[in-house]
Amino acid sequence: MFYKVLSKLLDYPDEALLAAIPELRGEIKRGFEAAEWLVLDRFLGHLEKLDPTDAQGAYVQTFDLTPEHALNLTHHLFGDDKNRGPALIDLSVFYKEFGLEMRTNDVAANEGASNEIPDYLPLMLEFAEMLSEEEARVFMSQWAKILNQLASNLEEAQSPYAPLIRLVEQRSLLVKAAA
């Protein structure tokens, strides 16, 4: 449930997401550690205070118009370099091996498929939800350094999305500190 909820919260805040905030609050109360719940509850409170147009505008400004905040993780490795293509193809093939089909342009797609390119963080989190907790941690661990940099960039901009990226980063660590 962790990856599913974070996938929703890091995706574009459309009317359906904003209407689902009460339901999401119920989900996070049941399936998250206390520290995670506080971060998520604070973020949901932030979304509730915004007019839908303001929430959407802030999202576009944060993620679509600021390259350092891009949710397409290979962008942080390659930028727009041609070497990014093979990484995206490899990720698409990996998803397909696990049964997640990617949509391409106007091609009809299977349920659960996405119009996003494979390195889009909400899509990656959706995929991680399909895996066991250990498999998801291993899959996401390869992106830990990028998640750290993305969270730092968002923190520098004082974005309310930064704590969400930190949660994903913490879950991606292969070794958890002993309590």
Say how many strands there are. Answer: 0
The fraction of residues assigned to DSSP E strands is under 5%
**How confident is the prediction overall: mean pLDDT?**
88
Order of helices and strands, N to C?
Answer: HHHHHHHHHHH
Sketch the major β-sheet: none
What is the rounded distance between the termini? 23 Å
Number of distinct helices: 11
Task: Please identify the structural class as seen in this structure.
Answer: mainly alpha
Rg, Cα atoms, Å: 16 Å
- Helix content, binned percent: 55-70%
The best one-word shape is: globular
Return residue spans where pLDDT drops below 50 for at least 5 consecutive residues. Answer: 104-113
Describe the structure.
The structure is a single chain. This protein is mainly α and 179 residues long. It is built from eleven helices and no strands. It has a domain at 2-72 and 119-172. Helices cover 65% and strands 0% of the residues. The longest helix is centred in the N-terminal third of the chain and has 16 residues, at 34-49. It is globular, with a radius of gyration of 16 Å. It starts with a helix and ends in a 7-residue tail after the last helix.
